[in-house]
Amino acid sequence: MQFFVRILGVALGILAAALVFLAFSHQHVQSRSQARHFHNKNVQVRSNRAALAVSSNGFLLYGHPFDIWSGSLHYFRIPAEYWLDRLEMAKHMGLNTISTYVPWNFHEVGPGSFDFETHAHDLARFLNLAHEVGLRVLIRPSPYICAEWDFGGLPARLMANPDLELRSSNDAFLDEVERYYDALMPILRPLQASNGGPIIAFYVENEYGSYGADRDYLQALVAMMRDRGIVEQMFTCDNAQGLSRGALPGALQTINFQDNVERHLDQLAHFQPDQPLMVSEYWTGWFDHDGEEHHTFDSEDLVEGLQKILDRGASFNLYVFHGGTSFGWNAGANSPYAPDITSYDYDAPLSEHGQVTPKYEDIQMVLMSYGAEHPRRPHYHSNSNPYQVMASHLTYMEELPHTNGQGYVLYSTNLDLQASERTLVINGIRDRVIVYCNGQRIALLPLKYTHAATRLLDLLVENAGRINYGEAIGEHKGLDEAFWLDEEEQAHMAVIPWDRMGHLTDDTPGAPRLYRAFIPRPPDLGTGVPDTYIDTRDWGRGAMFLNGFNLGRFSRAGPQWQLYLPGPFFTRETNELVILETDPQAEVPTTVKFLDHPLW
């Protein structure tokens, strides 16, 4: 980000920062207790048999009856410093298992280059922490995960290959998956329950029955895992409409829903008689799109449904137990196009910043009444050289090696405007465009120019998030069609990544702005530096970065009016907050305000 500040030439001074931090009790600390090592006398080490077996009477773990009481939490949405805390809170609520996805595009830092070791990418550390706390793990490592995550976890670069068909038995796609699994499965293999680890089941894909019917693809995924030493039980998961197409011999079918519990469980039993009933996603709330109201799900309705699940003897996974935050450019989108917000609070039992909610306590009471234990409450590396691509054809964001297909891209060209009035039409924009002419921000499309001159036209296109669910997945980002000056196609342009837009500077009216504030490290209150929220109500649209880390997008459209800033992110004595503002307001804010709670 320091290079970004320099290259844009934006120097608007240092904003005063008025800090208000979350005054949490001892509940909100890096670790509410020392991790308790988990030992099971029935563990069978180095077995070639799955530790979890299925029977008409339910699950058997190491030969003993076992009910899966699970909750989803995503390590990639949680500061690594808080992993242990969130896991302990899952155990404290009465769960015995957690579920997590593994997003391919989070771990692939370059084509064929993977990071499974550094900080928040250290998947093995997260899984071992779950084991130490006494939690089993349902792992969801498929190439596609949905999860309201950008492109459903798929790397954007896949879209640059016209011969590749997503989520299919297409050779080009499976070749990519093989390379990914070559990096991932050696990490997961020793952590299987059959090897004494926490992982008791692997998901083949995610709600595939709602997308396709290519059984060869599903079988190929299973074969890839088996060939790499995975022996545990395989699950599929689908909503009710996808059960018939999502089934796979040898894999246990599971179901996803929020209401009509008896009907959904009856449907699952119909498709799969004499097998354990498993709800892989019992939705505890819902996600939010930009500009919508914040979604909630009544706790009374949730626990009533949970009791019905338990009364049927079914196993379950709460989706989600704790949502966290889609930091960076990682929030996804849905079709018809609607981008997700940065917060993944989800109205979950444990809030975005890790606080117990009434929903948490209600679920805990239900699980205790059914025999749950009640343990003691635990207290892209950037090249600094200027970079652009000269293109004589349409270039999508995912074709630029520098951007990872995220953020913004600038299309720049010179137009010879000799007539008194010319009409410029631009179609196929994904997802949002700001138009500049000779450095001046102008009206949106279609545009009419009334000056006769050669003018520099800049199109700043924002990728607001790739669709992560449904048949519309796989859209390109940037300009999807050529633009036209009257009836003449304009195809020659410079394509510039978002952090190299050197000619849009502080002197450009209406251009994106960068603001900086320097914030002293808050005092350690004895339990670590407290968390806080940045109040975004005075800002238009953009993203915020602390010490170069992308905290996520903000937008005046709501419903999110704040960005979560975890205390461990204050890594320096003096911390640099950079605010990228693409829609500058008439009155420039002079302070950065912080909150002790979210504004829903």
TrEMBL record:
GO MF annotation, one: beta-galactosidase activity
Keyword Hydrolase belongs to the record: yes
Domain of life: Eukaryota
Name the UniProt record assigns to this protein: Beta-galactosidase
SUPFAM superfamilies associated with the record: (Trans)glycosidases, Galactose-binding domain-like
InterPro entries reported in the protein's UniProt record: B-gal_1-like, BetaGal1-like_ABD1, BetaGal_gal-bd, Galactose-bd-like_sf, GH, Gly_Hdrlase_35_cat, Glycoside_Hdrlase_35
Similarity-based family: Belongs to the glycosyl hydrolase 35 family.
Domain (Beta-galactosidase galactose-binding): residue spans on this chain: 523-575
Gene Ontology CC entries for this record: vacuole
Domain (Glycoside hydrolase 35 catalytic) ranges: 59-367
Catalytic residue positions: E207, E281
Domain Beta-galactosidase 1-like first all-beta, residue spans: 405-494
Organism: Monosiga brevicollis
Keywords: Glycosidase, Hydrolase
